[in-house]
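Lecture 7 notes: from sequence to structure.
We start with the chain below.
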Amino acid sequence: MSFLRRRSAASPAGPDFDVLAMDPGDWPGNLGAGLLPAPDGSCQGVFLRYDLFGGRGPAMIIGNLPEGSPARETADDEVPFEVAQLLAALETDEPVHVTGTEDCPVMHDGNLLIVRRVTCSEGRIACVQFDRSDGVLVTIASWDRPITDDLYQLLKPLPAELFQG
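Predicted structure tokens for the same chain:
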């Protein structure tokens, strides 16, 4: 089960992988994408912001961070990068920390996916993480909306053209 597919193009204009997310046509609101560049120019991750609140900040951020990305390195009670991005976009400056995690099995396209639910001190944040077969960590953080198991059925690789500049 690989959600991330390497592109065969010799020198892609965007990141070197396609991103697991919802197609913009399948979801209402505005979609924005950001890249996390390393000093050498390599892509250290991609995150997508879904703004469902009409310009008042994103309702959901989906991050794709490969192995070795510094954004994956957090202390035990530190929130994931995507949660911090969500809080920054919502201009929330109150300190938030992780209060617990729980692993849950979820079926996705006939395969078992182990999803880690991350509980935060801010109750309006829902956060889940899972590892793809190629070592990329996917984190979904949402504001004031629960993340239910049917959300995973909407996830699929986005076309590489969306990320070319």
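Points to note: The chain has a mean pLDDT of 77. The CA atoms of residues 100 and 119 lie 5 Å apart.
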